[in-house]
Every structure is written in C-alpha cells, then in structure tokens.
Amino acid sequence: MEKNQFDQPVNVLPTPPFKGDHVGSLLRPERLKQARLQRQNGEITAEQLRNVEDEEIIRAVEKQKQAGLQAVTDGEFRRSWWHFDFLEQLDGVEAYVPESGIQFHGTKTKARGIKITGKVNFSEHPMVEDYKFLHNIAGDHTAKMTIPSPNMLYFRGKLEYSPYEDQEVFFADLTTAYKKAIQTFYDAGCRYLQLDDTSWSLFFSEDGRARIRENGQDPDELSRFFARCINESIADKPDDLIITMHICRGNYQSTWAASGGYDAVSEVIFGGLDVDGLFLEYDDDRSGGFEPLRFVNRSDLQIVLGLVTSKHGNLEDKQLIKKRIEQAAEYVDKNQLCLSPQCGFASTEEGNLLTEEEQWAKLKHIINIADEVWHS
C-alpha cells in the first residue's frame, strides 16, 4: 500500500467518509487555551488571538496528516462549543445565559444557551472564512467542515419568536437557511460536510421518549419531523458534495448525557435519511447492538462505526475492534463500513480527559486497524 512521508498508510477512497476517519473536534492546545483566556480578559486583540488559532490549526492539520487521516479538520479550535458558536451566528438567533448548564452524567456544563428572536436565515457567517482557511492548508487532503444539524436549533433554541409557534413556518425558514449555508460552504470549496446531532438521543431511551410526551409531542411524529428537516435541508446539495451526520449521546469532559440503542428510531435513521454517511457511537454498551443496522436499505450509505472511544486514552484491543466490525458486517455489507472514534475529543473547549499524545495515538490506531481490515 502507498505510504506518505511519515510512513503511515495513505487511506484513500474516491469520496469520504474514509475507511479510517474521525468526527472532527480535537483537544485544544494549552497555548490556545491561554490565548482565548487572554482575549477574554482584554489582554490581547482579536487579531492576535486569530493568529494563534491559525498557527495551532496549521499544527493540528499536520498532525492529522501524520496520523494517516485523509480528512482533516480545524479541530474546532475557533469554537468554545461544537454547536452554539455556529447557531448563534444565524440571523434571528441570539446567545443568552440560562439559569444552569446542560445536565450530563454526574456533572453539568457551564451555562450557555441560544434563543430564537427573529426570522432565521443564513447570511454573513464567520465560519465560512474559518473553512476557507482550512481549505487552503489542507493540501492534497480533504478539508472536512463540521456544523450542527438544523435539528439542534429546534432542540436547543428557546423560542421567543411567535410566528414559529407554527412548526411548519419554522421548518420552512430553518431548512431554507441551511440550504443557503450548504451552498455557501460548497462555493468556498467544501466537498465534505458533517452535520452533528444530539437530538436523536431523545428517542433512544424510554426516559427520553417520556420527556417528549411531557412536552406535548408524539415521539414517532417528532422523529419523522427531524428526518424531514434533515432531508429538506440537504435536498438541493450539489452531487459532488458529501454530507454525513454524526449522531451523539453527549460528550463533555469524558461524560455522557443519554443512553440507549438505535432500535426505537432505527427505521427512520437507517432507512429514512438522505445523507451519504452516518457516524455512529458504538464504543460501549450504552449504544446497544448492531441489529438496528438491518434497516440500512441503500448500498451507497456509508456506516462509520465509532468503536474507538474518545473519552479515555487507553487503546482498544485491535482484535476486539476487528471482531466487532465483522459482527456489524452481518447486517451491512463490509464495504459500506468505516471506522472512527465515537465522538470528537473536545466537543467543548474543556476537552475530554486524555492527553494530546493519547489523542494522536487513538487516531493512528484507527488508521492502522482500518488499513488491516479493508486494505490488507
């Protein structure tokens, strides 16, 4: 197999997702954390902070290439949260400080929220320039952009705009905004876009489904609405743009927010979404088994198995990972399967509880396993 200059396997497929891939976010280097704190305290300018971000992103991209990854991201180094930073910059959306943070297993995040105060739209968005920077340094690798799913605005946004009490009015504006976003990133050169989505975790447990009912909604109807929102948002995407979705149960400082398998919404997720690939959590028992994959009904849908955890630094047993891939292949053609971490390494700027060295070792481990499974 072809090797790159760092003597790592070059993991090449015609289009992403790649056989060895990753979700996107990376641990923030200490220098970057310090610079963000200095900016917050007024000790450096926005331009000085951006210069630090640029330098650390360049370094992170090179490290991704060294690990053998074909897709590279900016590590979400310019964000403090994986979703709020993007959603706040949509027209009609504002940041606010709620009474408390988001509840995770044994802990809470810092308090931060978003509210919908006007007509939602996508116009001038700073992350377009962020993508252009990544695109320009990606070289012969694929620059991957990650943004929150449109469902996340519905899921996390506090509604303060009365016309959106009509769900269909909200749906029309939200999907139109995302169509504009997708086209704008495409025009900037993006050919690999990932929608990150934790809203699906509501359906994975009876507790979550009960919460939906308590809110006066029917879980089955809501899941179909979420699917329709995704499908309408990406309906006009260019043919050569790959759009994947990462489905997450929460990832904050190595903790989680939800549990349960994909069973209750497996037909909707695996048989009803028009995305090109699905990044799925499968790193522990909270994610259930592979049986729901039997509802995959398209030969062109790539299933990226998140069998390697980003929550701790211990490397998984290679043979066990290979065995689990074979188990998943009982339900989906092995050529439709890929391998990745179950989530990013830093969904918020605090990051998970492992070192940068352990993070890079995890990514190299994924590439090595993928190379042996699909290319040996």
Automatic annotation (TrEMBL):
Record keywords: Methyltransferase, Transferase
NCBIfam families linked: PRK06520.1
InterPro entries: Met_Synth_C/arc, UROD/MetE-like_sf
Organism, as annotated: Sediminibacillus dalangtanensis
Lineage of origin: Bacteria, Bacillati, Bacillota, Bacilli, Bacillales
Alphabetical list of Pfam families matching this protein: Meth_synt_2
Domain Cobalamin-independent methionine synthase MetE C-terminal/archaeal: 23-350
EC number: 2.1.1.14
GO biological process: methylation
UniProt GO molecular function: 5-methyltetrahydropteroyltriglutamate-homocysteine S-methyltransferase activity
UniProt region (Disordered), positions on chain: 1-23
Protein name: 5-methyltetrahydropteroyltriglutamate--homocysteine S-methyltransferase
